[in-house]
Input
Amino acid sequence: MHTGLLGLPYLIGHQLQPLRILFVCLGNICRSPTAEGVFSQQLREAGLEQEVFVDSAGTGDYHIGEPPDERACAAAERRGYDLKPLRARQIQRGDFAKFDYILAMDMENLRSLKRFCPPEHGHKVMLFTEFCSSGPCVVPDPYSGGPDAFERVLDLIEDASQGLLSHVREKLAA
Ligand code: 4NP
Output
């Protein structure tokens, strides 16, 4: 947990948000905004939205400022998640200090993040799928795939988000 004077959590806006989680993929238009939307909703349903700050970013700069991919928005909407207000951004060096967890969708993102990450923050960078209930896997890039690819992304992200939520509950209770 980041703490300021007197060991209190930093004030972000007007709210206490002791944990900060950043989801990262390549373009920040398919997988990581989906993870941001799904996990934010799970936090709201758990009444924990004031406790955790959630954001997403891409390792690449191809889609900066764009909304999520229409296919990702449509697939998410069918399951009750609204991704449309989100906008793509590229990860910044300052994100490694700002966030407590920096969660990569696949091995390529993980390698890019590890290369870019200042060594003192290296422990924060991990695969999001480490929180999945099944064995080792990644969230595969759906950009060149069909509709099934976006459903698979959602299946994996919903599963990993449940695991992450349990982890967050433990952290907040500690
Ligand atoms: P994402 O998907 O990393 O899940 O946002 C992609 C989006 C765009 C590209 C690749 C992957 N692209 O090559 O433009």
Q: What stands out?
A: Residues 147-173 form the longest helix (27 residues). Residues 25-31, 62, 141, 143 surround 4-nitrophenyl phosphate (CB under 6 Å). The chain has five helices and six strands.
